Amino acid sequence: MSDSADSARSEEACPVCGEHRLTLLYFPETSVTGVRPYDELYGMGDRAADTAPGIGCLACGSEWLDLAAFRRATGDAPS
Q: pTM for this structure?
């Protein structure tokens, strides 16, 4: 196997198709202007939601909103 094939393989398999092609979705957005505390005070700028990234399968297109939803799909949810 080549290095690029190893890097594209995820540790866990997709519970839908069984492929090892999982990836994170919806990375948090970072402002390129840096910290601007007065923008929030004055109500300027866009407020980005602070949520955890989702999980998706590159092979079949299935998506889960968060790690807990993914664990429920795989049957590994804590009881």
A: 0.61
